[in-house]
Structure formats: structure tokens, C-alpha cells
Design brief:
By secondary structure, the chain is mostly beta strands. It is elongated.
């Protein structure tokens, strides 16, 4: 198997169809109701959903059966929080391990770096994200410890 075959297989797996063919018919439910962002079964206590609301990435989580929605971009370096690990109502960014309280958006790693929260509701088997309840920080960057040593070199000394 060559690189192209591997790439085609990866793309096929990611989008659930053969590249270049029409999308496969979805099993089960039809189209989402107007305004809904996901079917309820898509978000479980172990699986989040990453959606777009009003042009903004939002991560939807279910914690102890209750839905919560926060900005999907970590306030450190915009890591996808919806891909982070969740434990005890706290999501850890997959990039540099910044931690956020899913219910409040509070950043547990650095003060004043909360993510915005969104109102979310569930009805008739669908999830609706209906608007912001808090803004969150617009500041980005900051310290992180990813276990790698940073080595700087002055090129003018050579």
C-alpha cells in the first residue's frame, strides 16, 4: 500500500465514504430540526460534540446527564476543547493541558482566562445552543509546560 492509498483510506474513514462519491445516506434519523446543532445521542458523558453557532466554535458536553456548552477554543492557544479529556466536570485542553470548568467556563490553570459559556437545551431528541451566557477572555498565549526543553541559540555568535 502506497502513501496515496493510505491517504485515501484515511480520508474515506474520516468522512465515512469513498472520496469523490456522493455522501452515504445517514442511518437512523433524518435532517436536524431547524436551529438544532446535534442529535441528543451524539453527546454522552464520554463524548462531546464540536459545533458552530453564529460563526463561533462551541463544544457541547454532558456531565452527569446535564448539558453544558462552552467556547471550543482554549484561551491559551485556541486548542479544541471539544477534543479534550473530561473528568469530574473539567475539560483538559489536548494541546497544553489547560483545564476549564465545563459548567462555569472558569480556567483552573490561570486566573482571568475563562472561556465563554452558551445556553443549551435539549428537546425532542435534539440539542439547541441558544446564545451566549458569558463572554470569556479574548487574551491568548501564556506559559505552558509541555515537557519539552526550550533551547535558544543566538545566530549572531557564529
Amino acid at each position: 500500500m502506497g502513501f496515496r492509498d493510505l491517504l485515501k483510506r484515511s480520508v474515506k474513514k474520516a468522512i465515512g465514504r469513498d472520496a469523490g462519491s456522493k455522501p452515504a445516506a445517514k442511518k437512523g434519523r433524518g435532517a436536524l430540526p431547524a436551529g438544532a446543532v446535534a442529535w441528543s445521542e451524539r453527546v454522552t458523558d464520554t463524548k462531546s460534540a464540536e459545533v458552530v453557532v453564529d460563526g463561533v466554535g462551541v463544544a457541547v458536553f454532558r456531565v452527569n446527564g446535564r448539558l453544558h456548552a462552552i467556547d471550543n477554543a482554549c484561551t491559551h492557544e485556541d486548542g479544541p476543547l471539544g477534543e479534550g479529556s473530561v473528568e469530574g466536570g473539567v475539560v483538559t485542553c489536548p494541546y497544553h493541558d489547560w483545564r476549564f470548568d465545563i459548567a462555569s467556563g472558569e480556567c483552573l490553570s490561570h486566573d482571568n482566562r475563562a472561556v465563554g459559556c452558551w445556553a443549551v437545551e435539549e428537546r425532542d431528541g435534539a440539542i439547541y445552543v441558544t446564545g451566549r451566557t458569558s463572554q470569556g477572555s479574548t487574551e491568548r498565549g501564556g506559559a505552558h509546560n509541555d515537557g519539552l526543553e526550550v533551547i535558544t541559540k543566538n545566530l549572531d555568535d557564529e
